[in-house]
Amino acid sequence: MPQVIPQLINGQWQASNARELIEVTDPATQEVLALAPKATHEEIEAAIAGAKQAFFSWREVPVPERARLMLRYQHLLKEHHDELAEILAGETGKTFADAKGDVWRGIEVAEHAANICSLMMGETVENVAREIDTASYIQPLGVCVGITPFNFPAMIPLWMFPLAIACGNTFILKPSEQDPLTPNRLAELFLEAGAPAGVLQVLHGGREVVDALLTHEDIRAISFVGSVPVGQHIYRTGTQHLKRVQAFAGAKNHMVIMPDAPKDQVLSNLVGASCGAAGQRCMAISVAVFVGESKQWIAELAAQMAELRPGYWKDSGAAYGPLISQQAKQRVQKLIAEGKAEGAECLLDGSHCEVPGYPDGNWLGPTLFRNVKPNMSIYREEIFGPVLVCMEVDTLEEAIELVNASPFGNGTSIFTRSGGAARHYQHAVEVGQVGINVPIPVPLPFFSFTGWKGSFYGDLHAYGKQAVRFYTETKTVTSRWFDDTPVSGPNMTIQLK
């Protein structure tokens, strides 16, 4: 029997009493790697109670000590970088290089959390009125929750719990049930770094576990990354129960290609940004908008994409791995079929891809469409596969109108040699993250991940200064100290000077 993975509750790895177990499979072979429990009501309550109790002592730990914990943690993550990448590749199917990138981008956020001392600094003004001073202090919230997706099982948990805990909160992580082995290993290393019992808890399961966390009175804030329907459910349910929520949802990211752009760089970047990680990235480029004469490059784009070969994660020549599940593969195949039926021209069709030696893998070959219209399902829906759709416009203004009409606003990029065109695009486009000659403009952790519109529900974004504000609240203290001069009577007025 495969191993039933444990849960981290109050500093101890515990076997679950769950009767329902979820198979964790290798998407390249369908081999069952492990079994994840669906946490019981009692286990959920124990984790929340433990996190609440741990908060009362953890919030009093001096901020420099919290920073030192993060310094030790990022050091351990670097020591175990390749080990984590192997675990991640095995359960997600990502190529080893891609898995290492997943881990490293998470390490960068842990590094950023080690700077928490300066990030937690408040503000002061002396003599806001005569002999009266005002200061603001940044203080933690309490028990926070992170609900993370399958596609980045290292990076996205590390977006959340290091910063939340460095701010003085305690944290409950509910990772994707499709690849929970990597998050468990992240938590093991966090304990090894010296995290006190109860500061981080890890629960496994599906929607029932999520809903229990969303509605529990002791949970103060919820961070989520995933699909649009789930993101909307989490935002509505969490806010209805008076919690802070940041919910990162779907995307449809456009790359605008101007005719003056360097063709070789455009095509190379476009191939990697659309098919890397099998397209299973919320910042993947899934729409190429060719402006004017740049449409002549589409044939060369098809030729370069046709050379991509998916494969097993140990295959150094593989461009990307399988999709996460058979259900995910079937969904993408359905959208490809709909695109053809709706009249789009399919220049490359990866629906029936095979990889020698791995007949049961969730493989999809690179797929390219041309003559796509905004009303087609392959344009309207987030495909989350190695599928790129091409659209053609005459001017930059038409490209901007197309991008701005999309209900999503996660990321976009423009490739051009013109500073004026780039400046106009970055100013006019209604998207939160813009790349100029950069295909996937994911910011480093000292900025924040700033999706807009239907790509994000909430007010404060992930990592960076915005995450610190999300995981904390501000206390403002106005003070006046009296000398020994006698006071004739009570002051009944508000001081104006």
From TrEMBL:
Domain named Aldehyde dehydrogenase: residues: 13-477
GO biological process, one term: thymine catabolic process
InterPro entries assigned: Ald_DH/histidinol_DH, Ald_DH_C, Ald_DH_N, Aldehyde_DH_dom, MeMal-semiAld_DH
Domain of life: Bacteria
EC number: 1.2.1.27
Pfam families recorded: Aldedh
Keywords, comma-separated and alphabetical: NAD, Oxidoreductase
Example of a GO MF term: methylmalonate-semialdehyde dehydrogenase (acylating, NAD) activity
Entry's family note: Belongs to the aldehyde dehydrogenase family.
Alphabetized NCBIfam families for the sequence: MMSDH
Protein name per its UniProtKB record: methylmalonate-semialdehyde dehydrogenase (CoA acylating)
Protein's organism: Aquipseudomonas alcaligenes (strain ATCC 14909 / DSM 50342 / CCUG 1425 / JCM 20561 / NBRC 14159 / NCIMB 9945 / NCTC 10367 / 1577)
Lineage of the organism: Bacteria, Pseudomonadati, Pseudomonadota, Gammaproteobacteria, Pseudomonadales
Gene (name only): mmsA
